[in-house]
Write a structure and sequence with these properties.
The complex is a heterodimer of chains A (333) and B (473).
Chain A lengths: L2 H54 L14 H17 L3 H23 L4 H14 L5 H8 L5 H14 L1 H10 L6 H10 L2 H9 L6 H14 L5 H7 L5 H13 L6 H8 L4 H10 L5 H11 L5 H15 L18
Helix pairs in contact in A: 1-2, 2-3, 3-4, 4-6, 6-7, 8-10, 10-12, 11-12, 12-14, 13-14, 14-16, 15-16
Chain B lengths: L1 H40 L4 H8 L8 E7 L6 H9 L6 E8 L5 H8 L2 E3 L13 E7 L5 E6 L4 H11 L4 E5 L4 E2 L3 H11 L4 E10 L4 E3 L2 E4 L6 H23 L10 E5 H6 L10 H15 L5 E12 L5 H21 L10 H16 L1 H18 L1 H32 L6 H13 L4 H17 L20
Parallel strand pairs in B: 1-2, 1-6, 2-5, 8-12
Antiparallel strand pairs in B: 3-4, 4-5, 6-11, 7-12, 8-11, 9-10
The chains are: A mainly alpha (333), B alpha/beta (473).
Chain lengths: 333, 473
């Protein structure tokens, strides 16, 4: 009775162990190949380090010996470029990197963009953005027409923002459903001014998540001209819009007008009262004390704590946190 | 009489056989999930994505809580690793839970700490805080001394003092890779608050070269007991948690390294100070809260960020640890038993809870029974001999094959152990697991079950060897 299951299980175990043995051999062979690639990449860097320094500093022209001939050498060139771009912020060096990448590396990335492997495509998109390769736009458009992951879509938009800003808003709208607030915030922050203005004009039509991101970025950009717009948002019936608008006003770093402070202090939403408390730090001590009086018995601990910190500042009591302006600044980010 | 024995043996053999088939099928499915997930990200240049998340503008500040009870051997190394983190804005709260050794003194001396004040919002009641120190070298480093109340209580104190909206818990004997916090926070940041808790991958540090809280060289421990635990961690983290995370069914993220939304942690009442497994309990409570409120939130496991932790080096310490873990598991499952097979709790109630009850909690009893059955059947001979062979083969398939498979999967996708010799060593030891390590751990887990039933509770302190302390400490 047991003969059949035993035989089946026995062969299953043998088959599984054999498969694992084969996979082990494959894994070790693949690692060996990878190790050789690494060695070749290190050798390329060693061989050409000084030459690349001279080329990128504009002391000599790139010659054929620097052109990568295989995957390992391409990896080495990428490493060199990454380290220059990460550690130096020199438009001329970046321009030379871009020129070389467009001439000699774009072909590699063109191929990688067609890969079925998600991480290979992502890496290519990262490099295209890093090295600002502009001659692959047609390939990127083709990619854009395919079914992409949220990560690819976002990366593609980041590249399009660099090269085709005028078409950017239209494209972004197609992908709105895929973007998170976090990603929208990055895109808004990196937008050129004229584009950001255009996005601002579409504010009422945007989904709430993008509206919130846009308000946040208004604060990050610290454009005082936007104060009236932000002030207008304080009459919104949506709590979150008002809170974000107040936070953006706070981020502008100005002395907040009294009418805004009064409205926030009398709000039923504790977050607004808390932000009002934080804004009081920029007022003259005497003036701040008058407003603080209204908040010192606030039902919210965070608001009371903010007022306590303010009082210590006004009346000169020194605590360990006094120098730590960030004490509650991370709240609700 | 003989017929009765025959019936019992057949019935029991059949039950174990069915159990093993169910478990093998479950693990195979989990393995496939893990494989597809890891294959997708295998070639991704993680440095690129880390760089994009590191900008303070976009990241969320995190309070790091380090509960420490008699962690004199490892706490300084742990703090060094946390100070080295590649993350824009953190505060570091070390909570000394009434240690009786020199934990506090070591921290105060090493980081030049002085008495200080810090605002506290006592939203969770805890044991009394006695002193609070702040480092003069690193102003974002605090030491909170309190009366002993257990790890859960220490974490609750940390939550009360934390100023940021997310907190990360790290064991006092653990160290983090420099990019691990940014990686574990990634799903929280990108999901726009949908991910309310995330846990990272925990690996064993014993044997590694550690320098000022950083693993400077991957070296595998020479002790088979430690290597076996490395394999076990790989299997548990890569196979089980990836699959459960993809289906939003995570019930355990290791307390050694996890991040939580402070708001959710407070709303669940903070850490349970009565249970042994406070980390699992917190995750279960959060999952319960999410489902009861019908929120679109989730708990996620992230395989890439790594926390290094010290593993027991002796059988007696390992025994206490496993007993305690199992007690914690049973207590959490029992406490929230109403979630089991309750459609109100979605996949967590319908799949995750039954899986944890059947495979993780009661499984050891059945498996240990299987081992006893194999021994008995060998002595009884005849048809039972065949049962014994069949079960033994299933044990090999279940234990050995999945362990070796996990080592290969890890090596292929994440490559934490680059030396071929180390991989071969893990694989060779995996082949022996079924004859020594597995029965031992099964026995200890069953012991944990029995102790839970008789309400025997003790923490069973782990004797630290200071594996995270490193060469230069």
């Amino acid at each position: 009775m047991m003969a059949v299951p035993i035989t089946v299980v026995f062969w299953a175990v043998v088959a599984m162990l054999s498969l694992l043995a084969v996979l082990t051999i494959y894994l070790f062979a693949a690692r060996w190949v990878e190790d050789r690639k690494q060695e070749a990449a290190v050798a390329y860097v060693e061989r050409n380090r000084i030459k690349w320094y001279r080329v990128l500093r504009g002391l000599e022209e790139a010659d054929a010996s620097l052109v990568p001939e295989n995957e390992a050498e391409r990896m080495a060139v990428e490493e060199i470029f990454r380290s220059y771009m990460k550690n130096l912020s020199d438009p001329e060096i970046n321009g030379r990197i871009r020129g070389f990448a467009e001439t000699y590396l774009a072909y590699f990335y063109k191929r990688k963009l067609r890969s079925r492997d998600w991480s290979t495509r992502m890496n290519a998109l990262y490099r295209i953005e890093d090295f600002k390769i502009s001659n692959l736009l047609e390939d990127l458009r083709k990619l854009d027409r395919k079914k992409l992951s949220a990560e690819e879509t976002f990366q593609l938009l980041m590249i399009e923002l660099q090269f085709e800003p005028d078409l950017f808003l239209e494209r972004t709208e197609r992908h709105l459903g895929k973007l998170t607030e976090y990603e929208a915030r990055q895109l808004f922050f990196l937008m050129p001014d004229h584009l950001f203005e255009q996005a601002g004009k579409r504010f009422p039509d945007l989904e709430p998540v993008f509206r919130y991101a846009l308000i946040e970025v208004l604060g990050m950009r610290q454009d005082l001209a936007k104060l009236p717009f932000l002030e207008g948002l304080l009459d919104s019936p949506d709590d979150e819009t008002r809170i974000r608008a107040l936070r953006a006003i706070d981020a502008l770093g100005i002395r907040t007008p009294n009418r805004i402070l009064k409205q926030a202090i009398n709000s039923t939403v504790w977050e607004e009262r808390f932000l009002a408390g934080r804004m009081l730090h920029r007022l003259h001590p005497g003036e701040a004390a008058v407003f603080a009086e209204q908040l010192k018995e606030d039902p919210s601990w965070l608001v009371r704590q903010e007022i306590l910190t303010l009082s210590k500042k006004i009346y000169g009591a020194k605590t360990a946190d006094q120098n730590d302006g960030e004490e509650v600044s991370g709240w609700r980010r | 009489m003989e017929t009765v024995i025959e019936f019992i043996m057949k019935l029991f053999g059949g039950l174990i056989f069915i159990y093993m088939l169910v478990v093998i099928a479950t693990y195979s499915a989990m393995f496939l999930f893990a494989f597809t997930d890891l294959r997708r990200q295998r070639r991704l240049d993680r440095r690129e994505s880390d760089d994009r998340f590191i900008q303070a503008f976009y990241s969320k500040p995190v309070s790091i809580l380090v509960p420490a009870y008699n962690e004199e051997a490892g706490v300084v190394g742990s703090i060094h690793s946390l100070l080295n983190l590649n993350y824009p804005q953190t505060e570091l709260l070390v909570i000394d839970d009434g240690s009786t050794d020199g934990t506090a003194a070591a921290v105060i001396r090493r980081f030049d700490m002085v008495l200080a004040e810090k605002p506290v919002n006592p939203q969770i009641s805890t044991a009394r805080v006695t002193e609070l120190y702040r480092s003069r070298i690193h102003p974002n480093l605090w030491l909170i001394r309190k009366e002993n109340g257990g790890k859960g209580d220490a974490l609750n104190v940390g939550i009360n003092y934390a100023r940021f909206p997310y907190f990360c818990t790290i064991d006092g004997d653990s160290i983090l890779d420099v990019n691990s916090l940014i990686r574990v926070m990634k799903p929280i940041m990108t999901s726009g608050g949908k991910v309310v808790a995330a846990g990272g991958n925990v690996r064993i540090v014993n044997g590694m070269a550690v320098d000022h809280g950083v693993v400077s060289e991957i070296r595998m421990s020479g002790r088979p007991l430690v290597v076996m635990q490395i394999v076990e961690y790989l299997r548990a983290f890569l196979m089980g948690r990836i699959a459960l995370s993809r289906l939003n069914m995570v019930l355990i993220i290791s307390g050694a390294f996890s991040v939580f939304s402070k708001k959710y942690a407070i709303e669940t009442g903070g850490y349970n100070t009565e249970t042994i497994g406070e980390d699992m309990e917190m995750v279960v409570k959060i999952q319960r809260l999410i489902k009861e409120r019908k929120e679109d939130a989730q708990v996620e496991f992230v395989p890439d960020p790594v926390c290094w932790t010290e593993a027991p080096q002796t059988l007696s310490v390992l025994r206490r640890q496993r007993r305690r873990w199992h007690q914690g598991l049973l207590e959490s499952l029992w406490q929230h038993k109403k979630m089991t097979l309750n459609p109100k709790y979605g996949t967590v109630g319908m799949l995750s809870f039954p899986y944890f009850w059947f495979v993780e909690c009661l499984g050891p009893m059945i498996e240990l029974g299987g081992y006893l059955y194999v021994i008995t059947a060998f002595f009884m001979g005849g048809i039972y001999y065949e049962y014994a062979v069949l079960l033994m083969l299933l044990f090999i398939l279940y234990g050995t094959v999945f362990s070796v498979g996990s080592v290969l999967l890890e090596s292929w996708s994440l490559n934490a152990f680059p030396k071929r010799r180390d991989v071969l060593r893990m694989m060779a030891l995996s082949l022996t697991e079924v004859v020594w390590y597995k029965p031992l751990t099964l026995f200890w887990r069953v012991e944990g079950l029995v102790r839970s039933m008789f309400r025997i509770r003790s923490w069973g302190d782990m004797e630290r060897v200071g594996a995270t302390k490193g060469m230069s400490e």
